[in-house]
Write a structure and sequence with these properties.
Elements (H helix, E strand, L loop, with lengths): L1 E6 L6 H9 L4 E7 L3 H11 L6 H6 L4 E4 L6 H10 L3 E4 L7 H14 L3 E3 L7 H11 L6 E10 L12 H4 L3 H16 L3 E10 L12 E10 L4 E5 L12 E9 L2 E6 L4 E6 L2 E6 L4 H13 L8 E2 H20 L6
Parallel strand pairs: 1-2, 1-3, 3-4, 4-5, 6-9
Antiparallel strand pairs: 5-14, 6-10, 7-8, 8-9, 10-11, 12-13
InterPro entries: Gfo/Idh/MocA-like_OxRdtase_N (IPR000683), Gfo/Idh/MocA_Oxidoreductases (IPR051450), GFO_IDH_MocA-like_dom (IPR055170), NAD(P)-bd_dom_sf (IPR036291)
Protein name: Gfo/Idh/MocA family protein
Organism: Deinococcus rufus
Length: 330
């Protein structure tokens, strides 16, 4: 039996993670830690998992933990988990600062435990097909990537997402990182970053006028290709899904278009419209891979801590470039 736990449940993915893990034969969720009593009570009702103090969760000796707290609190949970000898799967971005990110990776390395970053999009069959095509040279020399990661502003579910102190930023911090990890996963690296990140009008996020909700990022890559990322919280509240992620890849021998969440149907009912996905469950594939790690087996596609660090470096460089008004190196 593989014992796992959740440390912090403020992230919008925590409910899904907890429910999936609780239903797995061969896995036992020993409990979850959460400092916010209101959020903890809601999460316990939704998942039927036990809310325990952090010390008690770690005293149950979980082999792995999933850190789903506000980004600014990741370091506290990761260092505690490492000291307890538990492998870590951490939500992205892994930290709000490079100092915290390095400290987390070093803590896990000292303790001899694995540190992995939650990038479920890597598990998309479409992503795997695109990666194989690029590596096989089917597109010739890649000239450009055009990535779009749009969504509804997630603060209507969890208010901390639009709080720069807890999230590290707004839409840029939330969305750039997914596309950057895809670029890294496809085999390229970022050399320079230019970005324009803009705040939202007060009517959209009252009290969060300093939080960026619209952004365009231009990247110069090590291969010589260029990439653009539209990372905006541009979808209205009534949008039938939280958002989408697409990437167009243009090469000297062809073009490929990736739409990670294209497999859906639109359901219309008394409560409005929503999209019901029928494709692969990417979060489940990622969690299943993490359970492999907890059982002492090698990961299949699970992103490591260095992947989380490299992507965070690019995101923070985008904020720096937006402030300075010129390109910077991550």
């Amino acid at each position: 039996m593989i014992r796992v736990a959740l440390l912090g449940v403020a992230h919008v993915h925590a409910d899904g993670y907890g429910a999936w893990l609780a239903g797995q034969v061969g896995a036992e969720v020993v409990g979850f830690a959460e400092d916010d009593p209101v959020l903890a009570a809601e999460f316990a009702r939704n998942t039927r998992l036990r809310h325990l103090p952090l010390a008690d969760v770690l005293a149950a000796a979980p082999q792995g933990v999933i850190v789903c707290s506000e980004t600014a609190h990741h370091r506290t949970y990761v260092e505690a988990a490492a000291q307890a000898g538990a492998h870590v799967l951490c939500e992205k971005p892994i930290a709000t600062t490079l100092e915290d990110a390095h400290a987390m990776l070093e803590a896990c390395a000292r303790a001899g435990v694995a540190f992995h970053t939650a990038f479920p999009v890597r598990y998309s069959p479409a992503v795997q097909d695109l990666r194989a095509a690029v590596h096989a040279g089917q597109l010739g020399t890649v000239l450009s990537y055009s990535g779009v990661n749009h969504s509804v502003a997630p603060d209507h579910e969890r208010g901390w997402f639009s709080d720069p102190l807890r999230a590290g930023g707004g839409a840029g911090m939330d969305h750039i990182i997914h596309v950057v990890d895809l670029l890294h996963h496809l085999g390229d690296r970022v050399k320079a970053v230019y970005a324009q990140l803009r705040p939202v009008p007060a009517w959209l996020l009252p009290g969060r006028e300093a939080t960026d909700a619209a952004g365009l990022v231009t990247l110069t890559l090590a291969s010589g290709a260029v990439a653009t990322i539209d990372c905006s919280w541009s979808r209205p509240r009534a949008y039938p899904r939280w958002g989408h992620l697409t990437v167009d890849v243009t090469g000297t021998a062809g073009l490929r278009s990736l739409d990670v969440f294209a497999e859906h149907v639109t359901v219309t009912g008394s409560r409005g419209r929503h999209w019901a996905g029928y494709g692969h469950d990417l979060n489940a594939a990622m969690l299943r891979d993490f359970l492999r790690v907890c059982a002492g087996r090698p990961a299949l596609l699970l992103a490591d801590g260095q992947a989380g660090l490299r992507s965070l470096e690019v995101v923070l460089a985008a904020y720096d470039a937006s402030r300075r008004g010129h390109p910077v190196s991550p």
